[in-house]
Amino acid sequence: MVFQMDCVDKELLKMMQEGIPLVSRPFAEVAKRLGISEEEVLSRIRKLMENGVIRRFGASIRPERVGLVTSAMIVWKVPPSKVVEVGNKMAQFKEVTHCYERQAIPGKWEFNLYCVIHGHSKKDCEEIAKHISNSIGIKEYMLLFSEREFKNTSVKLS
Amino acid sequence: MISLSESDKKLLYVLQYNFPLVREPWKTIAESLGMSEEEVLKRVKQLMDEGIIRRIGPIFDARKIGFGASTLVAAKVPSEDIERIAGIISQFENVTHNYQRKHEYNLWFTVLAKNHKDLQLILEKIKSITGLKDILDLPTSKSFKTDVRFDFGEK
Asked: N or C: which terminus of chain A carries fewer CB neighbours within 10 A?
């Protein structure tokens, strides 16, 4: 499962994880610091994408700054035999940014499918949830609105 | 809140969905949007200063770089103490997301670790430092989607 990266790959990823430099030829700049060619930087990035180490390459944005002010986690109670089918369907919605199956804790926490949505308001999120619920045919769910973000980072290579 | 122009929306779309992996990426973007390279770079810098763009670079698959175990933890925290406890938890490097949510379980955070054993050790450490007792450990069993991109094109 873990892709074997050589030390150049690792250094390359570490160098870019806070973002590429905003200059005309950013990959040449990275290449210079690593002591390899610009072409090699680009081909290594492509290879890391093919291997799935880099899920995507591009901008990460803060949705709350552009009007998507409310995010909610929705927890769903789905019959175990239907989780895969329902999860795949849920993942198709563009409002859904994350969708995971998690083990329920019998007697304490029965929800087993989770998604995160972003909307313009709480009401907007509630409508999105209702719409998803109708199309996947799951009626038992709960919205957990985020009231405060204490941390939101991506995983770091060290 | 900042309102985006039509050309900002197009720019943000390309930057998120279609970033060109070529020698001169800004120039390629500029050509596709009918702008100059200088204009694109200037606007990207502004959108970063305004906090709309967090960064531009690779987004990793945690599992492929050695984080084989992950969980979501829900905790019941006394509301008057939530800021302090959330602060302690956020300091852990393995904690990537940490949110206060409107529920009896009011603090929700995600933890990544190399393996299950390390993950449990981190959870034990968090419990002992914060004194939290009532937590739900909700490990991921299947991932259907992780795609934090936003298309402002419609509407």
From this structure: C
